[in-house]
TrEMBL record:
It holds the Pfam family NSUN5_fdxn-like. The keyword Methyltransferase applies. Residues 176-246 form the NOL1/NOP2/NSUN 5/7 ferredoxin-like domain. The keyword Transferase applies. The gene is Nsun7. PANTHER family: METHYLTRANSFERASE NSUN7-RELATED. Gene3D superfamilies: Sun protein, domain 3 (3.30.70.1170). This is NSUN7 methyltransferase. GO terms for biological process: methylation. GO terms for molecular function: methyltransferase activity.
Amino acid sequence: AKRTVALIEKDGYPDSVYMNAARIFQGIRAEKSKDKMLVRYGNNSESPLLAFKDEHSRRVSYELAFSALKYQDLLEEILLDSGVYPCQSIPDELTSLLVVMLYDLQDQKFEARKSFDEEEPVEEVKEIGHYLYSYKTKLAAALARCRIKYDALSIEHFVPETIWKQEQRVSALPLCVWINTFKTSLEDVISDLETKGLTKVESVSDFDHYTYAMDRHCHDVLVFPSSLKEELLNLDLFADCKLLLQ
């Protein structure tokens, strides 16, 4: 009855997130030698980022860019194997956007993303989105062939084992959160968390899913189970910078 925090569904992002993620990815992508460069990226790494709507938009833009980086080789192979790339109507300057949006499309199981009415659409995102979705069957088939080729149960198995183990360890660590005492108080934060169904416990060893604990040394720090990360970061307490993730 207390579990009132809504789950965050994967249904795409606003256009500005894709554009910013593509520009971030363009600056961090792995460079390849000319003899191995089958997918070409334009030279637009100096393009400025769009203004982030809020901290959530900034976070998901960077997460999307680094996810594309982690699976860059796989995403490029899917584009080539499916015949989706190269495409004369898509210039090299939009290849980063193509890769970023392909990662998100497969993450949504090749389902269409929802539209966001609260901001002005970006024509490049609309164009790339429609192009990828029109080839969703070929893209899904190419991903399936890659899984068979590399004997991978899921996309997560395409990363090196050392990175996968590191991510597993990091994802299991409790989340430490600072209370911004310039904007709120411990009492108000606790009251807000309790209205959302979270219960205070004595220590991390007592964690269930919807629980939290006080740090024993810092009285303005709360600790949460790692499984609550997505739900926590979408609370108003984080959007209003009343809580800050360590």
